[in-house]
Amino acid sequence: MDVFLKTGRLTLRPFTADDVEVLVELDSDPEVMRFLSGGAPTSRHTIETRVLPRFMAGYAELEGPGYWAALAADSNEFLGWFALHPVHDRPGEFELGYRLRRSAWGRGLATEGSLALLHEGFRRAAIAVFAQTYEDNIASRRVMEKLGMRFVREFKVSDEALREGTFDAGAADALPGDDVEYAITSEEWRDLPGVAGVSAR
Ligand SMILES: CC(C)(COP(=O)(O)OP(=O)(O)OC[C@H]1O[C@@H](n2cnc3c(N)ncnc32)[C@H](O)[C@@H]1OP(=O)(O)O)[C@@H](O)C(=O)NCCC(=O)NCCS
Questions:
Q1: Mean pLDDT of all residues in the chain?
Q2: Could you identify which of 81, 92, 114, 161 might form a hypothetical disulfide with 127, taking C-beta atoms 3.0 to 4.6 angstroms apart as the criterion?
Q3: 107 Cα–ligand 1 center, Å
């Protein structure tokens, strides 16, 4: 297996064409999709034609940032994914994202994987990392806070961003509220206590 990074409990590896099934299953849980699409699953067609191709694009070219499948380090069970990817209209910034199976929630895994990715992002090039979530997604907001990110703004997701999302077109229309953005700069990251203890492979 091609491994990108390991933490104490997680292995992050590149996605492959064989990952359709685990992604379909992940996005079939209405609780996982609650603050993304209002609970609607992502269709197999969308995963095959849009999500997985996007996840698999650019590993070599980007040398670090990207979309990574997250496995349990001890069993290699698929737990979900993490992302740290560039955004075309925000040079020097990376967007952080994560989506885990319900069985993996509540054990600090989103925070653990994200910390390792932030470490990678800032070690390589990022001047800032931001993350966005639906306003009512308290677990996701809490992860951002635990990472040392600060609240930046509340905003309405644009139609363009919705079209680029990792769920079916139109699905996010089910969520009437705002999204929120959190961010951390490289200076803020360097000043965080304990950051030196985070190690990537
Ligand atoms: C968001 C998500 C990745 C969090 O994963 P996780 O591994 O459970 O996260 P962590 O354990 O690292 O941290 C979660 C924190 O939120 C807290 N939390 C969770 N649900 C909460 C709730 N309803 N109210 C208050 N706090 C809550 C947890 O207690 C924990 O904080 P703590 O360590 O201070 O106790 C996971 O719930 C998920 O995959 N959700 C579905 C997809 C999704 O919404 N992704 C984010 C979209 S931007």
A1: 90
A2: 92
A3: 9
